[in-house]
Amino acid sequence: MNRKKVEKLIVFPGNQIFNYLRSGKFEALSDDWKHECMPLQFDYEFIVVTEGTLYLRYMNQDFKVEKGEYLFLPPSNFNREGIKKSYCSFYWIHFTMDLHSFPSLISTGEAPSFQRANCFLIPQTAQVPRLERLIIQMKRLQDLDRDSYPALTLSSSLTAIVTELYGQIETETPKKENLLNNKQIYSDIVDYVKRNISTNFTINDIADYFGYSPKYLSRVFSEVLGLSLKKFIISQKVDIAAFYLTDSDRSITEIASSVGFSDVHNFSRTFKKTTGFTPTEYRNSYAKRILYHM
Fold first, then answer.
1. pLDDT tens digits, residue range 201-257?
2. What are the structural domain ranges in the chain?
3. 61-94 burial by CB neighbour count: b if 16+ within 10 A, else e?
């Protein structure tokens, strides 16, 4: 399949709570699965792939959505249908919103006029910058639905998920256009942190690796992201640990080791300081899922 380049933006009104309909997690039973041909006339669908690759055609566009990527599908008279068999697993949410006279999908060149009209825009498909954090919120929404929370709570949680993705994408963009060199350093640091998340590295280790002083690297990182390097490293480790706590049966000791903590007590203190929960409390609160096989 030839994948067409997608340069479209989904339009979201900036002054409303979106209407939650339903959500779940899908897991293919084998690599012989292909998405059924199904309509999407009135709903939006938001998909986040966590394993494998989803091959989908919608509105005359072919999508190849890989692990760690998301896809928004706006309502239309087209059917969404699979175009290639593959194993995949993904979280999904259906919702609606009142666009008034706005279109659901625009080109990047149209963005400024819609931003002036108090809309926020999200690329139709791209990489999720902080996948684990988003998945945890999607799991939490499933928990709320399962526990029969009122529609306002569910819709507010849905809106928080959409705006979380928007915030992640926006904060990945440097705040100062003249920091191109700093942006590259920032990107290199982020890659280093993600590659070495299972080791107990320090800011000094990062500085030695890139040949800069720790103070300089910390300043550059803060200028680009608006967050200290130390806090970023901790947040990345906690996000991944939280994901494992809610999406695996690994022991807390194993999870601590997988994110670079040799001392499980130090891990538990750091986790509680960051999230407000001990690892056990977090697992018990967020571990129940709604799973669909199709």
1. 999 999 899 888 888 888 888 877 778 899 999 999 999 999 899 888 899 999 999
2. 8-172, 180-286
3. eebbbebebbbbbbbeebebebeeebebbbbbbb
**Radius of gyration of the chain, Cα coordinates, nearest whole angstrom:** 20
Q: Indicate the CATH number for domain 8-172.
A: 2.60.120.280
**Is the C-alpha dihedral spanning 251, 256, 262, 263 positive or negative?**
negative
pLDDT tens profile 136-148:
999 999 999 999 9
Angle between helices 264-275 and 229-247 (to 10 degrees): 100
Q: Where do we find the tokens 């779940």? A: 24
Q: Which helix (H) or strand (E) holds 258?
A: helix 252-258
- For residue 107, list its beta bridge partners: 8
Tokens of 109: 């060149």
Identity of the residue numbered 63: F
Question: What CATH number belongs to 180-286?
Answer: 1.10.10.60
